[in-house]
């Protein structure tokens, strides 16, 4: 193995809505994730079919307690420090800072909480890598403004981001605007708080909301660069190479189009303008994207400093309707790839695809990459003595880190790797605790039962050694 670059940011990644809990503590408002119960209703809502702006009686909402990072962050950060973390990617809950999203003044208790978390990280020599919006729009902005379909959210987001930059300018150098911004097209309520009315043109609403998020991202980049001299502000996408099922040119073209669903956002954030294929898509689908006069210049002059991305799996597509019946894995609806193994949740396991994806992104944008999510969701069962021998996770991560090393050898500039999630937390897609990613086990089940006690898995010491040797020993 080659050595990773000096100063490489090894660490892990969590999200406020999947870890913090304390969903109404100290003045926090409700967010969209706080309306996602477990079970069948969860998926109906995720696609934009919301039935109530309040949690329903009789339903279990996993985000309300999550793993209680809000009260246990010192304990958790101490464990991350023991592993040798150089960075922790985390997000700020918008509704902790502005409970309703449109408040005249920020919530001081929320601001102080993140001050305390950042101080604890810095005390242990851990760099905070902060996502401004990670799938949690304040519910008031959904109910009274229609969320990101409304241009007013651009202003609310700019105020929110500027508040964060001013408050934490001496503590946080690495920021990202929106988590997996391309998820807006696949899970519109999760990605943008969108709720659809019967019969409305959902495609029109999605792409108008996308434009508003892109303008808001550019304004955040502008504010961050003005307020924090040495700041690095990135975008973030849910990445994964799409393979054509065959060498039929129709399949190859379809794979290119699927990838463009993701690249569309990053093309704008990184290059500063809408690509030609997006303009044609708008024309072909009769989409009228409302823009203000200054939008073009804002996008052009405020591009991101780096590309953050998650990688869990590659995807495969075909134009053959019979082959398309063989669907597999996650929200991108990939066809089963006969050359790849799958996780317990049907996600393809493709370490080589990680290297391909990294090369593809770097070739396209020529900007530093930051791997901010990568990991294996699996059922971890403690032995009678309490040990958790998650060799399957170690094997998954070992192969992916090795391919990341190869990508760096290929000439790809990668500044860090924060695996998802270093401690067990609530699954974003299913709301489960049973689907575990961590090096640290949290005693809690899908129904919310458990002590919340933390314990180390076998992968804890494995990752510690990876960091100690800067990736030389896998």
UniProtKB/TrEMBL annotation:
Active site: 373 (nucleophile)
EC code: 3.2.1.86
Any single GO BP term: carbohydrate catabolic process
Xref: Pfam families: Glyco_hydro_1 (PF00232)
Keywords assigned by UniProt, alphabetized: Glycosidase, Hydrolase
Keyword Hydrolase (UniProt): yes
GO molecular function: 6-phospho-beta-glucosidase activity
Example of a GO cellular component annotation carried by this entry: cytosol
Gene3D superfamilies linked: Glycosidases
SUPFAM superfamilies tied to this protein: (Trans)glycosidases (SSF51445)
InterPro entries assigned: GH, GH_1_N_CS, Glyco_hydro_1, Glyco_hydro_1_AS
PANTHER family: 6-PHOSPHO-BETA-GLUCOSIDASE, GLYCOSYL HYDROLASE
Family affiliation: Belongs to the glycosyl hydrolase 1 family.
NCBIfam families reported in the protein's UniProt record: PRK09589.1, PRK09593.1, PRK09852.1
The protein's name in its UniProt record: 6-phospho-beta-glucosidase
Source organism: Peribacillus psychrosaccharolyticus
Lineage: Bacteria, Bacillati, Bacillota, Bacilli, Bacillales
Primary gene name: ascB
């Amino acid at each position: 193995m080659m050595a990773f670059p000096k100063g490489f940011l090894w660490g892990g990644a969590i999200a406020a809505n999947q870890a913090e809990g304390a969903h109404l503590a100290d003045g926090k408002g409700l967010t969209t994730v706080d309306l996602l119960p477990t079970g069948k209703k969860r998926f109906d809502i995720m696609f934009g079919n919301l039935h109530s702006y309040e949690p329903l009686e009789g339903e279990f909402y996993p985000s309300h307690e999550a793993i209680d990072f809000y009260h246990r962050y010192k304990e958790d950060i101490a464990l991350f420090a023991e592993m040798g973390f150089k960075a922790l990617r985390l997000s700020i809950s918008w509704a902790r800072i502005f409970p309703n999203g449109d408040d005249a003044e920020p919530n001081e208790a929320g601001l102080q909480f993140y001050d305390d978390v950042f101080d604890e990280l810095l005390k242990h020599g851990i760099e905070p890598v902060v996502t401004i919006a990670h799938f949690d729009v304040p519910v008031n902005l959904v109910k009274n403004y229609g969320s990101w379909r409304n241009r007013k959210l651009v202003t609310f987001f700019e105020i929110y981001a500027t508040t964060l930059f001013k408050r934490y300018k001496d503590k946080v150098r690495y920021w990202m605007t929106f988590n997996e911004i391309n998820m807006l097209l696949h899970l519109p309520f999760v990605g943008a708080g969108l709720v659809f009315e019967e019969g409305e043109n959902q495609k029109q609403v999605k792409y108008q909301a996308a434009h508003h998020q892109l303008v808001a991202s550019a304004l955040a980049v502008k504010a961050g660069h003005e307020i924090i001299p040495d700041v690095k502000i990135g975008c973030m996408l849910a990445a994964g190479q799409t393979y054509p099922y065959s060498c039929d040119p129709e399949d190859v073209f379809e794979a290119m189009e699927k990838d463009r669903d993701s690249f569309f956002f990053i093309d704008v954030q990184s290059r500063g303008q809408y690509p030609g294929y997006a303009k044609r898509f708008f024309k072909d689908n009769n989409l009228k994207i409302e823009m203000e006069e200054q939008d073009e210049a804002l996008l052009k002059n405020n591009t991101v400093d780096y590309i953050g991305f998650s990688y869990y799996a590659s995807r495969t597509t075909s134009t053959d309707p019979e082959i398309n019946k063989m669907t597999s894995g996650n929200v991108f609806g990939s066809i089963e790839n006969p050359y790849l193994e799958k996780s317990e949740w049907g996600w393809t396991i493709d370490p080589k695809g990680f290297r391909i994806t990294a090369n593809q992104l770097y070739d396209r944008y020529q900007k530093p990459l930051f791997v901010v999510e990568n990991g294996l969701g699996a059922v971890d069962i403690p032995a009678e003595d309490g040990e958790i021998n998650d060799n399957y996770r170690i094997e998954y991560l070992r192969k992916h880190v090795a391919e990341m090393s190869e990508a760096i050898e290929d000439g790809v500039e990668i500044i860090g790797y924060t695996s998802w999630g270093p401690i067990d937390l609530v699954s974003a897609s299913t709301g489960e605790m049973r689907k575990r990613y961590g090096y640290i086990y949290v005693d809690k089940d899908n129904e919310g039962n458990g002590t919340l006690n933390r314990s180390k898995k076998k992968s804890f010491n494995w990752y510690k050694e990876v960091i100690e040797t800067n990736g030389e020993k896998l």
